[in-house]
User: What shape does this take?
Amino acid sequence: MAHIDLETKILNKNDEGAVANRALLDEKGVYMVNVLASPGSGKTSTIVATINALRDKYNIAVIEGDIASSVDAEKIKAQGIAAVQINTGGACHLESAMIKRAIDVLDLERLDLIIVENVGNLVCPTDFDLGENAKVMILSVPEGDDKPLKYPGVFQVSEAVILNKVDTMPVFNFNQEAFEESVNQLNPQAPIFPLSATTGEGLEAWTSWLAERIRKA
Amino acid sequence: MAHIDLETKILNKNDEGAVANRALLDEKGVYMVNVLASPGSGKTSTIVATINALRDKYNIAVIEGDIASSVDAEKIKAQGIAAVQINTGGACHLESAMIKRAIDVLDLERLDLIIVENVGNLVCPTDFDLGENAKVMILSVPEGDDKPLKYPGVFQVSEAVILNKVDTMPVFNFNQEAFEESVNQLNPQAPIFPLSATTGEGLEAWTSWLAERIRKA
Assistant: This one.
């Protein structure tokens, strides 16, 4: 199975890079979180809301992964926050070597937190260690409560699960209890943070969880 | 670049299988549509609504691609429609060999239309020809109007673009004009069908477009 063998080889090379990234960030005391989600689940809005909640206490930078465009990096820069855009040129996930190049242009001595926004994809980024301290995933209410059954991998690798757009709950037929039960079965340790990046509802529980981890880095 | 070389090789093998699938379906007069979208954009609901609009005139079967679970195939079977579930076991897209195995269990002599629901992913399925007559993509309003800029590939390969969940337009800040302009720039030939699979609004334009193609198959 040539496909599998090559996949293993790519992953090993990626893992080596991830180990190096992690060692460098550890040394500099920078916490890095890798945000995974589908297109349109509100990754950028959640990152902007997180920045606004934490920017008084911590120095933050963002690494934006996209197949094309720099729409998201521009949104972050508009907040006065350092942002590095990575265009993967078609690739469906970020890899540790791309993160290395982005880290190299950031002032690590000054930073407390790097937020990586991965390519919008619930599948492929799951397998790639970037050297982050934690993967965190976002699912949004319009996507539906059955997603843990259909995309179990991303729920299993995430240290925390954000349920975004809870303000749209009345419009969608979303069973939050069933969703939380499925997530708990796949990943009993992961806290679930229902929130709305737009209204700010529920944001504090998530940013407190993150802040606690930044302090330990 | 070993990665690229292997990717080319996998694609070639996939393309050979796609050619064979297409020849078989042509011979049997079956039209096959490959539906691409993110998780939670309403692929299954749109397929169910499409079936209900066309089932009196055409014999339809569905091939469901999912990483795990058979949730979607069960929803289709509950409509009294033949459904074959493919579990990719982690893979982020369907390939022509998987479709071949699914086609082999369907009664092609009887069928007019096969709808393939690809894995929820706006990136990887774009590159894989399954032997379909047309790729059709769905974007849903909650995902945001900037998606053509960020995921251009899927908009470029699609014969038609469905904009789903238009009934939720009042809840989301979605600029339909800007969206349609971006789509037209990437793919001037593709019609855009704004609809709501839930309310049925706008469905007829899409199902008429599809029915016209089934008749020619």
Remarks:
- Chain A has a mean pLDDT of 94.
- The domain at 2-136+199-216 of chain A is CATH 3.40.50.300 (Rossmann fold).
- The first strand of chain A starts at residue 31 and ends at 37.
